[in-house]
Design brief:
The complex is a heterodimer. Chain A has helices spanning 92-107, 115-140; strands at residues 5-11, 15-21, 23-28, 31-35, 42-54, 60-73, 76-81, 84-86. Chain A is an alpha+beta fold. In chain A, α1 packs antiparallel against α2. Classes of the chains: A alpha+beta, B alpha/beta.
Chain lengths: 141, 290
């Protein structure tokens, strides 16, 4: 059989992706994970960031997850995303704006802003931007 | 003669009401379809989590998460999902009718009650009750709620459960059976019932996951997400129920308006006929007198 595995990306609101893929890269709490078919069973928490997927034809797709869980079995990979968004859908201006707001909030700690929350917002915005940039690099080349 | 003009005005007003109910019926029908497909879309996530938790619970039998442990019930939390708006038949009333005996029962047993209304109608109703505490609430979620809008509200209840303030959490909502039937449902969410391991018996203990960072925190996260997704599903299902109930209620209203118009038309015709007859009699008797 072909050297592929099935990848499901589901969020609480909808199923986003469910196809055979060759290679998946996701950002777990302990660092980036590259997953090939026949990976050992693994369960990891995901950080906000992009998920890169290589399809059998060599085409690549990007998703943005703002956290979630990753479950790996030899031929099935499941990403339980908190909110997964296709990288195309992210409005860059919006992401920039969110990042700016978050940075401002961190700088301005005297105001009654929850520091931890601001920091996660910043991480999420930065990850969205990263996903966008890699998408653009891909298109540019 | 009982004013033909008055009756005509009345018919006009019933007709315009009928137009409104007719429009609402159609809007509700289309919204119901959207809500139904959203209901379908939420299923894979919960199923997947359930399968994973099932595996975890069996692979790690020594780790007992507080969400899975039964304890003596001293205080119960109810998450009550209702609609934001009215005009949906007896949907919310039926739900309250089911909930009230339950609350009374708790009261008699000396069990404290915390409620967390989701939706405007529930918030209004529960505000009037005594003996209960409203821990948190979420209203005006609209027709396409996002799980992000609910997480804060759910967290209040989950934190109370974790800290031992609550010993049980019950989810109250309208289950969508079909367009004609919506079932008011009370569902125990926490402690969670034991999970079935979906993996076949011979494989069952043969392997385990590599956990990153560790099994306990992974299970923590999974359980929290599972409960959140249960509540989210209930909210989505309640929206589908609301639209279905509204559609049926508006259909009944339109039909009522139709029969009311028919009756009024009859009265109007009679009044008109009587007026003509009187007029004729007057002319004839006038002519005879000359």
């Amino acid at each position: 059989m072909a050297n592929t595995m099935h990848l499901d990306i589901v969020s609480a609101e909808e199923a986003l992706f469910g196809e055979e893929v060759e290679f998946v890269v996701a950002r777990a709490t302990e660092g980036e994970l590259g997953i090939m078919p026949r990976h050992a069973p693994l369960m990891a928490k995901l950080q906000p960031g992009e998920v890169r997927v290589r399809m059998p034809g060599g085409e690549e797709q990007f998703f943005y997850v703002s956290g979630g869980m990753l479950e790996i079995q030899p031929h099935v990979v499941t990403i339980l995303a908190d909110t997964a968004v296709r990288a195309h859908d992210i409005d860059e201006a919006q992401a920039q704006e969110a990042k700016r707001r978050a940075e401002e909030a961190i700088r301005d700690r005297s105001s009654e802003v929850d520091y931890a929350r601001a920091q996660t917002e910043l991480a999420a915005a930065a990850a969205q931007l990263r996903a966008l940039q890699s998408l653009r690099r891909k298109r540019g080349s | 003669m009982s004013g033909a003009k008055e009756i005509r005005t009345k018919i006009k007003s019933v007709q315009s009401t009928q137009k409104i109910t007719g429009a609402m019926e159609m809007v509700a029908a289309s919204k119901m379809r959207t809500a139904q497909s959203r209901m379908e879309a939420t299923r894979p996530y919960a199923e997947k989590i359930r399968a994973v938790i099932g595996h975890l619970a069996h692979a790690q039998p020594e780790y007992r998460h507080s969400f899975l442990v039964e304890r003596e019930v001293k205080r119960v939390g109810y998450i009550v999902v209702t609609s934001d708006r009215g005009l949906c038949g007896g949907l919310n009333a039926n739900l309250f009718r089911k909930l009230l005996p339950e609350l009374q029962h708790c009261d008699q047993q000396g069990v404290g009650v915390d409620v967390c209304p989701i939706g405007n109608k529930g918030a209004q109703f529960l505000n009037r009750l005594s003996n209960i505490r409203i821990a948190a609430q979420a209203t005006h979620l609209g027709d396409s709620p996002h799980i992000a809008d609910l997480i804060g509200t759910i967290k209040v209840m989950l934190d109370a459960y974790r800290e031992g303030e609550l010993d049980q959490i019950v989810l109250v909502y309208n289950r969508f059976v079909n367009t004609m039937t919506q079932q008011p449902t009370l569902e125990k969410v926490l402690p969670l019932p034991a999970f079935e391991d979906p993996v076949l018996d011979e494989q069952r203990y043969g392997w385990d996951y590599i956990y990153e960072p560790d099994p306990a925190s992974v299970l923590d996260d999974l359980l929290q997400r599972y409960v959140e997704s249960l509540v989210y599903q209930a909210v989505v299902e309640n929206i589908a129920s609301e639209q279905a109930a509204r559609m049926v209620a508006m259909k009944a209203a339109s039909d009522n308006a139709e029969s009311l118009i028919d009756e009024l038309q009859l009265v109007y015709n009679k009044a008109r006929q009587a007026a003509i007859t009187t007029e004729l009699t007057e002319i004839v008797s006038g002519a005879a007198a000359v």
